[in-house]
User: Fold this.
Amino acid sequence: MTFCVGEEMKDIRIDKYLIQKLPSLSRSYLQRLIQGGQVHVGEMCVKANYKVKAGDVLQVCVPPPVQTDILPEPIPLDILYEDEDVLVVNKPKGMVVHPAAGHYSGTLVNALLYYCGNSLSGIGGVLRPGIVHRIDRDTTGSLLVCKNDFAHVGIARQLKEHTITRRYAAIVHGVIKEDTGTVDAPIGRHPNDRKKMAVNYRDGRDAVTHFQVLTRFRDYTYLACRLESGRTHQIRVHMASQGHPLLGDMVYGPGRKSGFALEGQTLHAHVLGFVHPRTGVYIETKAPLPEYFLHLLEILPY
Assistant:
C-alpha cells in the first residue's frame, strides 16, 4: 500500500498517521509492522518515533493472512443476527474471544471457524479471524463478527468514530445517588501492574462512559452503561475509579468477598447497534440478560 502525506497531516508520529489511513488495523498490529521493517519512506525503513513530513511517500507492506493452526470446534453459538457479511453472537460467560497464551481451544474463534468455515475476515490476523472488537472472558453478551474484509473495514471505521451503539447492564458495589452520570477519564496501562488497566492521565487514551441507575439495592446498584469509546476493561476501570467496582470483579473489585458465588464481573453487553457496512441500514440487537444476572436481581436485598 502506498500513501502520500499531505500538508495537513505533517509532523504526526508514523503509527498515528497509519491508524487514520488504515482504520481496520489495530495500533499494536501497525506498530509490529513498523518494528518489523514493513514501513518505508523511499528506501528508508522508518522507526517507531518517526514523524511524517509533507510529501513523504509511504510504502506499507501488510503480509497476507497465514494459514492458522487454530482448529474448528463444534461449540454451539447463540446467534442474534446473521447475514452474508456479519453476525452477532451472544457470548456466554467464561468464553475467551480469540486464542492466546493458555487458551488455544474452546474460544469463540474456534466455534466460528467450525460454523463459518473460511467465511471470516482475515484482517484481524491468524488468531482473530472475523474479530473486529472484543469483550472480556467473563463478560457476557453481544459481539459483532465480520465474515469478510469489506465488512471488517466498515465496522472498524464505525468503532474508530464511536458511532456503534453499545449499552451494557452492570451491577456495582455501593449505592449511587445520582440518577445519571458520565465518567470522562483516559485509560491506559496501570503504572505498577502491566496486567491491569487504570485511569491514566499521562499515557492513557480518551475514554467516556455514561451510566444510568436502573435499580438501587441496599448495598448495590443496577446500571445501564453506554460506551462512547471502547478501551480495554473500560466500564470495570471507570466504575472502580468512582468507588463502585463491579460485583464479582476479581481484578478491580473485592471479588469473592461479596459473598455471592460468581464467576467474574456482573457485566453484560446488552444492546449492540451498527450501520450495516453494505446496505447502510441501522441494525440493533439485544442479548437477553443471562440467568445468573436475573437471579441476582431477584435475590439482592433492598
The helical segments are 14-21, 27-35, 108-116, 149-160, 234-241, 291-299. The chain has a mean pLDDT of 91.
